[in-house]
Write a structure and sequence with these properties.
Elements: H1 10-19, H2 24-31, H3 35-42, H4 50-60, H5 64-68, H6 72-82, H7 95-104, H8 106-132, H9 140-151, H10 157-173, H11 176-182, E1 186-190, H12 192-195, E2 200-203, E3 208-212, H13 217-232, H14 234-242, H15 249-268, H16 271-280, H17 285-292, H18 296-303, E4 316-321, E5 327-332, E6 361-366, E7 372-383, E8 391-401, E9 422-423
Parallel strand pairs: 1-3, 6-9
Antiparallel strand pairs: 2-3, 4-5, 4-8, 6-7, 7-8
Helix pairs in contact: 2-3, 6-7, 6-8, 9-15, 10-11, 10-15, 13-15, 14-15, 17-18
Length: about 475
């Protein structure tokens, strides 16, 4: 008789708990076990029994097959990606050995992945330290908030489920303004001079939601939904943030605002309806905007959140920047290694879309480690609703792993072009491509070779060491 191999689901169980916004204590209460046992399961120090598997599936309404599927293949893939790092270039690493480690030693695999992740973060931190210069600490709350969102792949199950309920209530009431009226809140649109620079303001004394009357339809709907999120989802947002300790209170404020915006988008584009429409329309951002009355940026942002367990869609990353290259928003659900400081790669088309406003640019990208992505970029504008009022134009990029690109309408018929993917780097400090003519500074750890007799097309020539 074949021996039954113990089932270890530590990383998967931990991801599930975080996606549901639960502490170990809360999950332990749900499953009627001790918090220490949850911790042992998450660290792969105890196997998941058949009884526990059924209990997990029943408690969180999951498919047993999805839970029981092993992480070995995922670990093998992730280890293979990590071991392509040039630092391991002189080591013979057969695919069979990598697979054996992943299948037989999930704990060791997780440890190796964490070590490489820590190494990569430290390398990036060194690049940031050199590139950021004086005053870099002023943006630390922003980076802390970004790390919080990235760790959860920008998906918050309690907010999405609550938003679907609210969306149904709002539809039944005849719209957001009618729903607010039932709650005793009146919505009024006032001229900019009366609003004194505010797009949205809540007058608590008179129970009035005041909006700038020059807002376009999607912006007005979003501001109204954001107010509803701040009030109707307040307890849900606080519960998500309560389990974390932040270095700065500013981080908590930024995340409250970000989660309220998340809730607003989830109300305007409810998960079930939006996810189905996204798949049916080939993730056509403009078509989805027409269906849900949302802007290009709102739809692109919402597409990064479609990671509900069992109903996942294409994992996307999102970037928004201005003409100077300053990044004002970034979200990652596709494993794209963003540069925190020092600017991105000028070869990425997101930096070039300003030349042709509102035109969609598509591009295959290849990172130095061989990872390939597909990018969709376009300009978006905000403000300027009235003569003499300044308008801000930014670029947004939405991207996914090359393996997912066939599901996007933008990539259809472009399969052959992947062989001509544009070689880009995360940032010059972390990119070791020696043949890049767009490089601005040499990478960390490489010495510049001095040669008075020759000047190549590249700005720098490096030594082999």
């Amino acid at each position: 008789m074949a021996e039954t191999r113990p089932l270890y689901l530590g990383p998967r169980l931990r991801r599930l708990r975080r996606e549901l916004g639960l502490t170990q204590q809360a999950m332990a209460d749900d499953l009627e076990i001790s918090p220490s046992y949850v911790a042992l399961l998450e660290r792969n120090q105890r196997p998941v029994t058949a009884e526990m598997l059924v209990r997990l599936a029943r408690t969180y309404r999951l498919e047993i097959g999805d839970l029981a599927s092993e992480d070995g293949e995922d670990y093998a893939r992730r280890l293979s990606d990590v071991l392509r790092d040039p630092i391991f270039g002189d080591i013979d690493l057969p695919a069979l050995e990598i697979s054996d480690i992943a299948m037989s030693f999930p704990g060791v695999s997780e440890a190796l992945l964490r070590l490489h992740g820590a190494y990569t973060r430290e390398q990036q931190a060194l690049a940031e330290q050199r590139a950021a210069g004086p005053g870099a600490e002023e943006n630390e709350p922003v980076r802390e908030a970004q790390r919080f969102l990235a760790a959860r792949r920008n998906y918050f199950h309690p907010l999405d489920t609550r938003a679907e309920d609210l969306a149904a209530e709002i539809e039944q009431a005849g719209g957001a303004e009618a729903w607010l009226k039932e709650k005793g809140v009146r919505v009024r649109a006032l001229p900019p001079e009366v609003m004194m620079g505010a797009l949205r303001r809540f007058d608590r004394h008179n129970q009035q939601l005041l909006l700038d009357d020059t807002l376009d339809g999607p912006s007005r709907d979003f501001q109204t939904a954001t107010h509803i999120a701040h009030t109707a989802m307040r307890s849900d947002i606080k519960a998500i943030l309560r389990v974390e300790t932040f270095a700065s209170e500013t981080t908590r404020v930024l995340l409250q605002r970000a989660l309220a915006a998340y809730g607003a988008a989830a109300m305007l584009m409810p998960y079930g309806k939006f996810a189905r429409a996204a798949e049916q329309r080939g993730y056509d951002i403009e078509a989805l905007g027409g269906l849900f009355g949302a802007s290009f940026e709102q739809v692109a942002h919402r597409l990064t959140t479609l990671q509900r367990p069992g109903e996942e869609r294409v994992p996307f990353f999102f970037l928004r920047l201005d003409e100077a290259g300053n990044v004002s928003k970034r979200l990652d659900g596709a494993g794209f290694p963003f540069a925190a400081h020092g600017g991105g790669c000028p070869l990425w088309s997101v930096h070039q879309v300003f030349r042709a406003p509102r035109v969609i640019h598509t591009q295959w990208l290849e990172l130095p480690g061989g990872e390939r992505f597909f990018s969709v970029a376009r300009t978006v504008a905000s403000g300027g609703n009235g003569y003499g009022r300044g308008q801000v134009t930014r670029a947004v990029a939405l991207g996914c792993a090359a393996s997912e690109a066939s599901r996007l309408v933008y990539a259809r018929g472009m399969d052959a072009d992947i062989a001509k993917a544009t070689p880009i780097g995360v940032t010059c400090r972390l990119c070791h491509r020696s043949d890049c003519t767009a490089r601005s500074v040499p990478p960390i750890g490489r010495d510049v070779m001095v040669d008075d007799t020759r000047r190549g097309a590249q700005p720098y020539t490096f030594t082999d060491g």
